[in-house]
Amino acid sequence: MLQALTINLRQSYAFVARNFNLVKRYWGWELVWLAYSVASSLSVVFIGAGMGAITNSSDIDTNYLVIYLLIGALVWRYLAGLFDNISEMIQWERWEGTIEYTLMAPVHRFIQMLGQTLFAIAYMSLFTGVIAAAMALFFELDFSKANLAGAVAVLLAGSLSFVSFGIVASVLPLLYPERGTQMTHIVQAFLLLVSGVYYPVEVLPGWLQFFARISPATYVLEGMRAAMLEGASLADLSHIIWPLLLAGAVMLPIGVWMFRLGETYAKKAGKLKRNG
Amino acid sequence: MRDEHNALVVNDVTKVFKKNNGNGWLRRVLRRNRENNGSGNGPAKPESKNVVAVNHVSFTVRRGEIFGVLGPNGSGKSTLVRVISTLMIPDKGGVQIFGYDVRQDEMTVKRMINRVSVDAAFFKKLSPMENLMYGARLYGVSAAEAGPKAREILNRLGLREDSLSEPMEEMSRGMQQKVAIARAFLTQPILLLLDEPTTGLDPRSKREVQAVVNELRDTHDATILLTTHDMNEADALCDRIAILDDGRIVAQDTPAGLKALVARNGYVPTLEDVFMELTGKELVKKEDDEEAEETEAVKVAA
Q1: Would an 8 Å CB–CB cutoff place A268 in contact with chain B?
Q2: List of domains in chain B
Q3: What pLDDT, in 10s, does the model give residues A108-130?
Q4: Which residues of B touch A264 (CB under 8 A)?
């Protein structure tokens, strides 16, 4: 039992170590992506800072607006990165030419996903932390009301749901070697649109609000804003945290199951090959 | 139940690939509707083409053997290896490895096998050691255990110590292939699948890889399935050989047994003679032609 657990942990760690080694080797691209992310996040948050000038009004609570957009930018960067890391794992392997080697290894898919998820959470926490630090250089913000512990709890609970989404989306590159990754980007773009990243979901047309209600990102953002802007306590946030955890717990095995189905189909159709 | 005598039993395996004409399902539906309404222009194009990659293939490999599958490009060798290595599900038939079914007992089978493919499948930016540690951990071997062993195998294969931390992409194909073999050895498979491991290697690298294959069989309790289109390699390494042509096995025996099939008037034939006699094709010439066609196609595309 203990030996099996050790082997499973070692197998999960194989993905964590491999991915950090890849980040290290592709450090140039990582820097480019980081610079781009800092610039694009700043440009969104500056809209909040400039809202008074844009509308020629002095009644606007600039601090509130900047933090509102800042939370949107950072949370989305984190969640989207998590989603990318998970959903593109098959595409990475295809691109490197290692997909058959990895899928031939005696590793349960759940163990593989666990390793991929641990890496994605660690990496995106670091990446988003650097962006947050860069933002702090540009804005003097008042976080005196913020409940940081509550914000972290919401983010971790939401991570579980987003990982599940990523696993489901990762089936697409398995099924469609040439267009699968583009399809995952469409899924991600749709989540960005409907989840209220930079605006309240109430401004969306009614039919889009339906999708807002089933997107986990909507609840993560709502919880983060409540914690950071209004200092909501853990008890106040429990109506958000529990459903997120529950959704993640339900969706995770469904995601792994769907991945297994996709893998079986790919093995029947001969779609695991390097060139699709 | 574990079978201690037969390492690999391939039983009536068939794999057919359906290739459509590059049209998606929507175009196919629209075309079918058009044809049903009588507005189609001319005769309907065939919608799909079935390619029989492996056609009712059966053979048994005994424990400790080096068994060769010999055939030209496109004969179904790699598809067969994919089926054996759990990467492809056959349409018919089945495969057992030491008595375990590759579908029913997938995880058990995966622990017993490893594969070296014609294209060294590595993370090219990572170093040999990083790739090897990744591979070892996937098979549950700790880095502490795998590290010294990996160095030993790589040194034996002639890789310099200072090249072990350089990115794989900076290494020659021969060196990459040696690392691929080292990676497979590291997990101590009892059935090793070598899918054209020496294709594209220079003669020296080829000889070194062949020596390692022989050494593996002599020093480890390993059974080896080797696919190749190199007649000399098959003759030198294999205990028995199956000749595969258009997805079918046309003959299987020891190299001497195969040669005896076509020996006449005291002339001792080569395996190349055997292949030509049995299939009516020239293995090497066909490949050369294919390469020429591919080169021409690239030129046209460019």
Answers
A1: yes
A2: 6-120+189-301 (3.40.50.300)
A3: 999 999 999 999 999 999 999 99
A4: 89
